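Incident review: delayed structure delivery

Summary: a single-chain prediction request sat in the queue longer than the usual turnaround. Root cause was a stuck worker, restarted by the on-call engineer. No data loss occurred. The affected request and its eventual output are reproduced below so the record is complete for anyone auditing the incident later.

Affected input:
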Amino acid sequence: MNFPIQAITLDLDDTLWPFAPIGARIDQVLFDWMLQHSPATAAMYPVAAMRELRERSFHDNPQLHHDLSALRRLTLREALERSGADLALLEPAYEAFYAARNQVEFYPDALDALARIAARVPVAALSNGNADLQRIGVAHHFSFQLGSREHGAAKPAASIFHAACDRLGVAPAQVLHVGDHAEMDVAGAIQAGLRGCWINREAHAWNHPSLQPDLQFDSLTGLADWLDANASAAHA
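Output delivered after worker restart:
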């Protein structure tokens, strides 16, 4: 398929790097931190209990689903309060979490493909997560980073896609959104008037009832190759 693309918006978690190892590391880092700084909290909230508390906080606060940082702070505050700990530990605990959250292990193809893609067209990071591209060390590949927390709404809301297009100065129809999630990334983008590219690393079946991705690859390298092959269209 050949169509003009003037800019790309790119999901982060599970597109550039897998999130599961990060989540597991965060759980252990927070437990170890509590063990050192607030043993009573660690005793009351070992890894499984802290995970359960976080999931309950997410369930009970749908108004904050666009702001994972606020939800994490809520979880930490409740754990500290219930265990009788000093609330002055909240921000240091959050910083321990955030440092671990930004220790990512890229998919083998991702960094080289990202550099190739960014050399072709402007790329904006568009994420519901709270990764920090400066801390991770790849911000130089991106025109900007727009998160659901800063925007005030999460994908698949059309408004976050449109906000990114506005900042890029490119009409939605000429922006390709790239991500792993069929609904939040691909269907959300298409319904907002963008093109949608599905990075389907694990050969899942596409099951949206009415929409199809404009492009589908099993790695970011596939997209980089497509852009190279369609360079004239990409700059049309």
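Verification: The mean pLDDT is 95.
Action items: add queue-age alerting; document worker restart procedure.
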